[in-house]
Design goal:
Length: 103
């Protein structure tokens, strides 16, 4: 499991890539969207192959969640992003989500 603290986007005609980086700005993994041509841009990185439609959601998670970790499922061998446990409703600023004060 590696912490993801930075990311870099590459958008092309046939695919999009997000390079996931650690605290030292070194690549720790890569997300590839669409019909990728070729392998990883950085050698033998853990790679998550995703549908192009998942690009927006993935960028949203990278921008708004944290800490994030690149992890591997031991059974399937596939990689995934995961966060720490979060409170239900965290970040929701609607009046209904505010706790009521006890009287």
């Amino acid at each position: 499991m590696k912490e993801v603290t930075y990311y870099q986007c590459f958008l092309g005609e046939n695919d999009a890539r997000i390079v996931l980086k650690g605290r030292d700005y070194q690549p720790v993994g890569e997300m590839v969207f669409g019909s990728p041509t070729g392998g990883s841009r950085y050698g033998d990185l853990p790679t998550m192959r995703m549908r192009r439609e998942e690009l927006h959601t993935s960028i949203d998670i990278l921008r708004n969640e944290g800490p994030l970790y690149l992890d591997k499922d031991d059974r399937s061998g596939s990689y995934f992003l995961r966060s720490d446990d979060e409170l239900v409703g965290e970040g929701d600023s609607t009046p209904q989500s505010q706790p009521r004060s006890s009287r």
